[in-house]
Amino acid sequence: MQPVLYAHPFASYCWKVLVALYENRTAFTYRSLGPEDPQAATELEALWPLKKFPVLVDEGRCVIESSVIIEYLTLRYPGPVRLIPADPEAALEVRFLDRYFDNYIMTPMSKIVTNELRPEDQQDPYGVDEARAALDAAYGWLDGLMIRRAWAAGDDFTLADCAAAPALFYAEWAHPLGERFPHTRSYRSRLLGRPAVARVVDEARPFRPLFPLGAPDRD
Ligand SMILES: N[C@@H](CCC(=O)N[C@@H](CS)C(=O)NCC(=O)O)C(=O)O
């Protein structure tokens, strides 16, 4: 039995895991959480009452949280792309950057996007301003890092890049990098050129009209 992934093609945290699966050509069953398969949502809720996704089920075990799922895949389904370095010190840097992209780019990006879904009288412009300032700070730090790196943690594509791909893809839509962060821009372009990332971007294309801020006509 191959692992089963509950996910949606437009959902940023699902991209992290999909990139990891595609990088290593890991076979899996995709339970897409859309109106075409309401049973998938019912199963997800039974597996994880918080109803957050992605969730992976393998050999009767339910694995939750995108980073933990990728860690699990590297243990149980290792492939040619080693997403967590064998060296524990090098792995610390990868795990730190994975947290960086989730906490300091994905989180403020989500704040800006989800604010748009609120009723107008429940919106939070102060919180959105804070999120934009947080993104500027996060882009700035990352730009300094990426002057000398091909991938987030160095020369090799890792878990950190799986996290960076959706974070920078959508953050650039919500709060453009402009000309201020050239190294981060180049890194984002390199990510989009990676076949596994290009594949998730393509699979998500039909859902772009759902982007609450209006998807820009690029990427
Ligand atoms: N920390 C979780 C975040 C998961 C998450 O927030 N997923 C979003 C989709 S990208 C979700 O479940 N949204 C539906 C909801 O919040 O109800 C992870 O890394 O897996």
Tell me about this structure.
By secondary structure, the chain is an alpha+beta fold. The protein has eight helices and four strands. It has helices at 12-23, 38-47, 66-76, 88-115, 125-146, 159-174, 182-193, 195-204; strands at residues 4-7, 29-32, 55-58, 61-64. It has a four-stranded mixed sheet, with helices on both faces. The longest helix has 28 residues, at 88-115. It is globular. It starts with a strand and ends in a 15-residue tail after the last helix. The model has no long low-confidence stretch (mean pLDDT 98). Glutathione binds at residues 11-14, 51-54, 65-66.
Topology as a string of helices (H) and strands (E): EHEHEEHHHHHH
Distance between the termini: 36 Å
Mean pLDDT: 98
Low-confidence runs of at least 5 consecutive residues? none
Shape: globular
Briefly note the structural class of the backbone. Answer: alpha+beta
Give the biggest sheet. 4 strands, mixed
Topology:
Elements: E1 4-7, H1 12-23, E2 29-32, H2 38-47, E3 55-58, E4 61-64, H3 66-76, H4 88-115, H5 125-146, H6 159-174, H7 182-193, H8 195-204
Parallel strand pairs: 1-2
Antiparallel strand pairs: 1-3, 3-4
Helix pairs in contact: 1-3, 1-6, 1-8, 4-5, 4-6, 5-7
This protein binds glutathione (GSH).
Residues 11-14, 51-54, 65-66 line the site of glutathione (GSH).
